[in-house]
Write a structure and sequence with these properties.
The structure is a single chain. By secondary structure, the protein is mostly helical. The protein folds into two domains: about 15-290, Growth Hormone, Chain: A; about 290-490, MFS general substrate transporter like domains (Growth Hormone, Chain: A, Up-down Bundle), CATH 1.20.1250. It is built from 22 helices and two strands. A two-stranded antiparallel sheet has the order 1-2.
């Protein structure tokens, strides 16, 4: 016979304005396990987004024709690639040199385009058909397409399969974050949402380690893709978001999942059904259950303003982060060490973001970090002919500011958009952020004409982002808006005496 004393102790859950969190707790055992699982998907996003650094690593071209030094001149009849550092890259594989040099950069532009469209597409799929099917689809698509890249016989086959891999990667970024945001309570939401960026930073930094030991591009691509096989366990372990089920009228399904989570969290289960059904009645009374779409973000004035300002912040942070990282990496030296140092900067920046957003809030933190990037990069405009060490310090400070802004943008965006259009909103922001990422290398290239143009543009857009941030409401400690009406009213200053 079982000893009654050994039965799991049921711990009451603090009741809040959020009906979901009131049943399962703010952040208990199940949420920890769930987040650890979903965090695994973030390593792959760092690897596939930035793998181009080593897939198309620069290789010297040596002319074999006597008395000719320029391998791209008409006088050079024979040349060879320097394979002393990398045995093969896509440049040596398909001879992307001289008049075909632009094809290497084009392949990465198409990757960023794939991430852009993927985040938007899977964001809409997630809001329409559910978080789980969208998330699983992009995880498995990333695995399959990433492995096919390794077998590419032609350049354009490589480009298409890299686009498809990036398309899935963009979806993974968007849907995985929304899944986490919808199951964590407000007390731990900022910490978890910010720590969610750490696997991306680690993935970015570890690319240098993969590339150091694997000097052929096909095996390098295989090594960063095969890890995604772990996603097969997601079929059994990742449930649908109970919050999405509730807001779309699938109350029974939401209750069943919440009861399982409550049991694992040792929370009371007998109150789940009556309280969730009561919460749905209140929700249904406010607005009929509907699945949102992209255009809903722009139909009402307050939600439209918040969408535009948040999207602009995303464009700026992607432009400044990727652009400044590239700017630093062009300083020469060891490609492995340079990449490792630049990528590692994101880790302390992300950890600092936890402290700042917790004690200062999202808005003040965003203003401060954009100011740091803006001031450092605008200072670089006037120090562009100063000692190189001073230039590097300014650029590193600018990058560090952006590394704090990045996780804050994820956190804040996930809290501002209401549940029925959260994936659409985050997908839109991520898509426009990739536009910033696409523009970043082009802005860096302007330094060939005037070296001060690049830091001027990055610094100026950071300063403009400070102004845009002032129009966004603080979300720290607030329940997530659920309906479009909630999203429109949230942060509106006039009425109700001010919250």
């Amino acid at each position: 016979m079982g000893d009654p004393a050994k039965k799991p102790v049921v711990k009451p859950v603090e009741k809040t304005a959020d009906p979901i969190i009131s049943q399962i707790g703010d952040f208990r055992r199940y949420q920890f396990f769930f987040c650890a699982l979903v965090f695994l998907s973030k390593f792959g996003t760092g690897w596939h987004t930035l793998a181009h650094i080593f897939l198309a690593a620069p290789t010297d071209l040596v002319c074999k024709t006597a008395n000719v030094t320029d391998a791209c001149s008409d006088d050079c009849k024979e040349y060879e690639h320097d394979t002393s550092v990398f045995q093969t890259t896509i440049i040596t594989e398909w001879d992307l040199v001289c008049d075909k040099r632009f094809l290497a950069s084009l392949s990465q532009s198409i990757v960023m385009m794939g991430i852009m469209f993927g985040s938007m597409f899977f964001g809409m799929i997630s809001d329409r058909f559910g978080r789980r099917p969208a998330f699983l689809s992009c995880c498995y698509m990333q695995l399959i397409c990433g492995l096919i890249v390794c077998l590419s016989p032609y350049y354009w086959f490589y480009v298409i399969t890299r686009f498809l891999t990036a398309f899935a990667t963009g979806g993974t970024m968007c849907t995985s974050f929304v899944l986490i945001m919808e199951i964590i309570g407000p007390k731990k939401r900022e910490i978890v949402a910010i720590l969610y960026q750490i696997p991306f930073n680690v993935g970015h930094a570890s690319l240098a380690i993969f590339a150091y030991y694997i000097r052929t591009w096909r095996w390098f691509q295989f090594s960063i893709t095969i890890f995604s096989a772990v996603f097969l366990i997601y079929i059994c372990l990742i449930p649908e978001s109970p919050r999405w089920l509730l807001t779309t009228g699938k109350v029974d399904e939401s209750i069943k999942i919440l009861e399982k989570i409550a049991k694992r969290n040792r929370a009371p289960t007998e109150t789940v059904r009556p309280e969730i059904e009561a919460a749905y009645k209140v929700l249904a009374a406010k607005a009929p259950s509907k699945k949102g779409n992209l255009w809903d973000l722009f139909k009402t004035p307050n939600l439209r303003l918040k969408t535009i300002c948040m999207a602009f912040d995303w464009i700026v942070v992607c432009m400044v982060y990727y652009g400044t990282a590239q700017y630093i990496s062009k300083l020469g030296g060891d490609i492995f060490l340079n990449n490792l140092i630049a990528a590692s900067l994101g880790i302390p920046g992300t950890l600092l973001c936890i402290v700042l957003t917790k004690y200062l809030g999202r808005r003040i933190t965003m203003i401060i970090t954009n100011c740091i990037s803006g001031v450092a990069l605008l200072a670089l405009v006037f120090l562009i002919y100063a000692d190189q060490t001073i230039q590097v310090v300014c650029a590193i400070v600018g990058l560090f500011g952006a590394s704090v802004t990045f996780p804050n943008a994820y956190l804040w965006g996930g809290e501002i958009f209401p549940t029925v259009v959260r994936s659409n909103g985050m997908g839109l922001c991520s898509m426009l952020g990739r536009v910033g990422g696409l523009l970043a290398p082009l802005i860096c290239d302007l330094a060939h004409y005037e070296p001060w143009i690049t830091p001027l543009i990055f610094g100026a857009v950071s300063a403009i982002a400070v102004v845009a941030t002032c129009f966004l409401p603080e979300t720290r400690g607030q329940p997530l808006p659920e309906t479009l009406e909630d999203g429109e009213n949230f942060g509106r200053k006039p009425a109700e005496g001010g919250k």
